[in-house]
Specification:
Order of helices and strands: EEEEHHHHH
Shape: elongated
Number of helices: 5
Helix content: 40-55%
Structural class: alpha+beta
Distance between the termini: 47 Å
Length: 151
């Protein structure tokens, strides 16, 4: 992830700054955004992604950008104590334990009448495609019922 200040405009004692933000993922996907710091608020004005973002990924975009934008936009003295580094994605166990937790999230969302894939996405912090893959692995492991009857 990279954040760099593109330009700044000062008028009447108020400075407005624009930042170019780029998220690059290991699979070659990338997200480019234009963020604006004006007064005490930060807004994202433009987002371009390759491949295109789903609505669910767009909803998670703010979580991905929050900490890097904070680091770039807020001057060091205003932050107070140094911030603890945190990942954009919450820690999620790997292997069998992770698949068991995916199955729990999936079943809980189904019981509540919600979207089970969105629940897995929220819990893991992964994209829709990766969450579907995790759900499939949980099915293969036997934590979830098979999707279709096999012949």
């Amino acid at each position: 992830m990279s954040v760099r200040q593109a330009w700044a405009v000062s008028e009447g004692g108020v400075t407005t700054s624009w930042f170019d933000v780029r998220l690059a993922f290991a699979d070659g996907a990338r997200v480019d955004a234009l963020a604006v710091l004006s007064g005490r608020s930060v807004r994202v004005e433009d987002v371009r992604a390759q491949p295109a973002l789903s609505l669910d990924d767009l909803a998670v975009l703010a979580d991905w950008l929050e900490y890097p934008l904070f680091e770039a936009c807020v001057p060091t003295p205003a932050r107070g104590a140094p911030a603890v580094s945190r990942r954009a994605r919450p820690a999620w166990p790997r292997g069998r334990e992770g698949r068991r937790l995916v199955a729990q999230e999936y079943r809980a969302a189904r019981a509540e009448g919600g979207d089970p894939v969105l629940a897995v996405m929220s819990a893991t912090g992964h994209s829709r495609r990766r969450s579907l893959r995790l759900i499939g692995q949980a099915r293969d492991e036997g934590f979830l019922a098979p999707r279709r009857a096999r012949r």
